[in-house]
Design brief:
The protein has 233 residues and is of the alpha/beta class. The protein contains seven helices and twelve strands. Strands 3-2-4-5-1-8-9-12 form an eight-stranded mixed beta sheet.
Length: 233
């Protein structure tokens, strides 16, 4: 049975790291006392040790110990023996590249499908979809494949932004870029706004948080999804 929390972001405005979602995580991980953290996305290029320390400080507040995957001699065994896994945000290209380098895509997917709880934020949420093609990140490295975990049947666009009608910026909106994607791909895309997350229990996918999400399907008008809505594909 799948058990996942897929969050748009780790930090919302005016809040500390993971602070807004810690009450949810305390319940989600209620049977867990140690978490495996995968720091490969390296936000702002920080080291694995630095990133793991940030995560450890946050999870300590809910009584969970954190150990980084880089601290293990065998990354595969670390995943297979983990009580739960958290993949943090940063650059999705960097994350996916390293997951392929370490040959962890398949073992991570098997772990999730076998019921090990999984938590992802930003890049760690992007990889739950069929591909990483709806990330907002710059391609600073070149992964061998855009295919990701595929534990949900659509893609995630984390940090989804609505057009600012008062802005003088004339670049593409997030909606425009997703529509461009749908000229060449038929994978549905869910735009997750900041502070929103998906709770997945087996095949039941529920939007959580206070904001709506925006669902894009090829050749259809975008639809606003209300919090509490069960997403089905």
């Amino acid at each position: 049975m799948k058990k996942l929390i897929i969050a748009s972001t780790s930090t919302i405005h005016g809040s500390g790291y993971l602070e807004y979602i810690l009450p949810t995580l305390k319940t989600f991980f209620k049977l867990i006392d140690e978490l495996l953290f995968i720091p490969y996305a390296r936000p702002s290029g920080i080291s694995y040790d630095e990133y793991t320390e940030v995560v450890s400080t946050a999870f300590k507040k809910i009584g969970i110990k954190v150990k980084g995957i880089h601290e293990f001699l065998d990354a595969h065994e670390a995943v297979k023996s983990a009580q739960a896994v958290f993949v943090g945000g940063g650059n999705t290209f960097v994350l996916v590249d390293e997951l392929y380098n370490q040959k962890l895509i398949t073992v991570l997917k098997e772990m999730i499908l076998n019921g090990t709880p999984y938590f992802g934020t930003s890049a760690g949420s992007n990889i739950c979809g069929l591909t990483m093609q709806n990330t907002n990140d710059m391609p600073i490295v070149y992964p061998q494949n855009y295919e990701t975990l595929g534990v949900i049947s659509f893609n995630i666009n984390a940090h989804y932004l609505d057009p600012d009608l008062t802005s003088t910026h004339k670049g593409e909106t997030r909606e425009t870029r997703i529509k461009e994607f749908h000229k060449y791909n038929d994978i549905p895309v869910l735009g997750l706004r900041e502070g929103s997350w998906l709770e997945i229990i087996n095949n039941k996918i529920t939007l959580k948080g206070e904001l709506k999400a925006r669902l894009f399907v090829q050749d259809k008008n975008p639809v606003e999804i209300e919090p509490g809505y069960k997403i089905c594909f």
